[in-house]
Amino acid sequence: MNSFLLRFIDIVAAFVGLLIGFPILALLCILGFLDTGSPIFIQERVGKNKKPFKLLKFRTMSLNTESVATHLVEVDSVTKFGSFLRKTKLDELPQLLNVLKGEMSFVGPRPCLYNQGVLIGERDRLGVFDVRPGITGLAQVNEIDMSTPELLAIWDARMIRQFTVAVYFRLICKTVTGSGSGDRIRE
């Protein structure tokens, strides 16, 4: 797929999303502040070419939760409001700013943490870091998350090989209509 076209679509869609979604973003910030006192979660993630960037999300877990992959976090770390945000995928909305800044795309491999060595090694081997990370991707709509790093890297590489404008929009539609449940949390 033409990277210029993809970037153009990302910029326009992120700008329109932020403009139209501003009242929702503002309301979620207020509710998040009432929930945890700190509605925005910022975490360093691995970006394109393994360059670090600050990922933005609405906070879904208590402030004292350890900064590890979600599947390593205890279920009781998620707040009630955070559970709602995760189920509806509204916790991802602040990433529209990451997309606008060029750190992410709407569709691409989900950005991992620097302490996820196995996943970084597999993604590096398969060329996954050659593209911008995304808000959603093929693995996510197929219930594959960071708890299975080798499998995740394989699905990420598959998505990159098969990537077209049609795939881009199909994965966005699947995400919006509820495919995939997000990263698992340890019970």
Summary of the model, kept short:
By secondary structure, the chain is mostly helical. Helices cover 48% and strands 11% of the residues.
Structure in words:
The structure is a single chain. This protein has helices spanning 3-36, 80-88, 95-101, 117-126, 138-141, 149-161, 165-176, and strands at residues 40-46, 52-58, 105-107, 134-136. The chain has 187 residues and is mainly α. The strands form two sheets. It has a two-stranded antiparallel ribbon. The protein has a two-stranded parallel ribbon with strand order 3-4.
Largest sheet: 2 strands, antiparallel
Q: In order across it, which strands form the biggest sheet?
A: 1-2
Strand content: 5-15%
The secondary-structure element order is HEEHHEHEHHH
Q: Give the mean pLDDT.
A: 90
**Global shape:** globular
Distance between the termini: 40 Å
Q: Indicate the low-confidence ranges by residue numbers.
A: none
Please tally the β strands and state the result: 4
Q: What value does the Rg take, in angstroms?
A: 16 Å
Helix content: 40-55%
- State the secondary-structure class: mainly alpha
What's the tally of helices? 7
Which SSEs are present, and which pair or pack?
Elements: H1 3-36, E1 40-46, E2 52-58, H2 80-88, H3 95-101, E3 105-107, H4 117-126, E4 134-136, H5 138-141, H6 149-161, H7 165-176
Parallel strand pairs: 3-4
Antiparallel strand pairs: 1-2
